[in-house]
Amino acid sequence: MAALLLGAVMLAVQLQPVPSRPAVSGAEPGQQELVGKAATLQGEVPEGAAPNGSAQQLPQTIIIGVRKGGTRALLEMLSLHPDVAAAENEVHFFDWEEHYSQGLGWYLRQMPFSSPHQLTVEKTPAYFTSPQVPERVHSMNPSIRLLLILRDPSERVLSDYTQVFYNHVQKHKPYPSIEEFLVRDGRLNVDYKALNRSLYHVHMHNWLRFFPLRRIHIVDGDRLIRDPFPEIQKVERFLKLSPQINASNFYFNKTKGFYCLRDGGRDRCLHESKGRAHPQVDPKLLNKLHEYFHEPNKKFFELVGRTFDWH
């Protein structure tokens, strides 16, 4: 009799249902697989670490670039939406070997805690120009939605230089003038890395090898600076988010010279490192820069089927 009772108890234990993460309503092909990956990897997160029943999720959206295109502004504006949970820092998972070699478990642990209904977003601007990244992102989730914010290529080059210049200034280190980078032997220095980053059609070709254009939403970074609300509305629609961000969430700060955010009565602006004045460049050299990007810009417009108000 005792053996019979023990057997019944053992059978009851074995039949206990195994908890699983609920299916995502309306998940697209590949999305449910992503949820499954996250659920499997959750075992690596310490027990009790999730506050209020939230959990870390692999991102369903990535801001892939471009460097100095306005990625931080885009992320901050998108974070106004209650259904968005954004990673605070640039993760550099897909482009840095020391991170990628640690696997998706490491990547998951870099994500913010979020509710099941929230969209997890991370941004790493270097992804757009890193050749190995598109295939790696596709391997994680072929249905992921990608955000790419671009600016006038010439202006982006100047912003790129400005950031590095001020980084050196803060460390009390000398740094060459922008002319020394842009000109070599009397000609435009096409080996300057900042120029390469602005050859958008080259990098876009690489992404379109793995993702259809409908999976990549291009944000006009110049328009986002001048009038952010319409651009953010387009992002909401692309991500299939309910329209929660309003024009009242933005106000122009005359002192800083750009738009700041108003969230629940709290005002916040981007870091002082954003919106810095560009160096003065000789007009002739600037014209050379514009001429250099003329044909690459045309190729990019043809590739994506739309035009931008660039020089």
From TrEMBL:
Record-listed 3'-phosphoadenylyl sulfate binding positions: 68-72, 151, 159, 259, 274-278
SUPFAM superfamilies named in the record: P-loop containing nucleoside triphosphate hydrolases (SSF52540)
One MF term in the entry's GO annotations: [heparan sulfate]-glucosamine 3-sulfotransferase activity
Intracellular or extracellular location(s): Golgi apparatus lumen
Signal peptide: 1-20
UniProt keyword annotation of Transmembrane present: no
TM spans (from-to): none
Catalytic residues (positions): 68 (for sulfotransferase activity)
Entry's EC annotation: 2.8.2.-
Domain Sulfotransferase: 59-298
Keyword Glycoprotein attributed: yes
GO biological process, one term: glycosaminoglycan biosynthetic process
Reactions catalysed according to its record: alpha-D-glucosaminyl-[heparan sulfate](n) + 3'-phosphoadenylyl sulfate = 3-sulfo-alpha-D-glucosaminyl-[heparan sulfate](n) + adenosine 3',5'-bisphosphate + H(+)
Pfam family, one: Sulfotransfer_1
Entry function: Sulfotransferase that utilizes 3'-phospho-5'-adenylyl sulfate (PAPS) to catalyze the transfer of a sulfo group to position 3 of glucosamine residues in heparan. Catalyzes the rate limiting step in the biosynthesis of heparan sulfate (HSact). This modification is a crucial step in the biosynthesis of anticoagulant heparan sulfate as it completes the structure of the antithrombin pentasaccharide binding site.
Protein family membership: Belongs to the sulfotransferase 1 family.
UniProt protein name: Sulfotransferase
Native organism: Vicugna pacos (Alpaca)
Lineage: Eukaryota, Metazoa, Chordata, Craniata, Vertebrata
